[in-house]
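Morning. Coffee machine broken again, so started the prediction first thing and wrote up yesterday's gels while waiting. Chain of 269 residues, entered below exactly as on the submission form.
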Amino acid sequence: MTLSALNQQPESPYWQGLNPAQRAAVEQLDGPVLVLAGAGTGKTRVLTTRLAHLLATGKAVPAQIMAVTFTNKAAAEIRERVSHLLGERSVEGWYLGTFHALAARLLRPHAERVGLKPSFTILGTDDQLRLIKQLLEAENIDDKKSPPRVVLGYIERWKDRGLLPDDVSNDSFDIANGKLPKLYKMYQDRLLELNACDFGDLLLHHLTLMRKHPDVLEQIQNRFQYLLVDEYQDTNVAQYLWLRLIAQKSKNICVVGDEDQSIYGWRGA
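Came back before lunch.
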């Protein structure tokens, strides 16, 4: 085929409507890419077009791509958009979902290495609060002065920062008779006994798994050649550390976000 004929080939439909800056962000497939812009400026369009471009050009197969969102709704919208852009092309087999959904999916095959069974359950808020209340009673701590919801809030913030019980300082606290770090340890031990974890554990356990087991880390880093992250401004410390570990080898990570907007700012971001 001549150069003239190549130049006359129709462009893929997913390029339509992109401005020069958006197109540049899509075409830069290798290496780290940060896309920051305001709401309604097409950030998610860049992410979905990158996904389509990776697949359409054969740069990656679906199983080599991880796309992370903050809500199930956003994941469903991205899947629908990419399917629309690629027509009949299948996107089955890629890892698309929320941080928690993806971490759970990756954790289950190796759950026994963190003290769980692959069939572990994920506790909701009511069960978490019930467990905290039991621990407070066991330590003779007044749950009126130290409400379970407040105690749980400390534990969740520690987990959002990627901190294990041994990482938490024994500095004095105004609640729980100064026993918050101990309660965190008791809470984690009880969860393991129940073969359960909470949502914060999904990332924390998987982060611990990758840090302590180089074979697992290598397997994951080799599998995922391209990472894409939506609403990056909302990531907390644990999520950042998790992404950094996975992308450490390929360095092919694209994050899109709004630096002036943080929906989940209270989660330690």
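The first strand starts at residue 33 and ends at 36. Going to sketch it on the whiteboard this afternoon.
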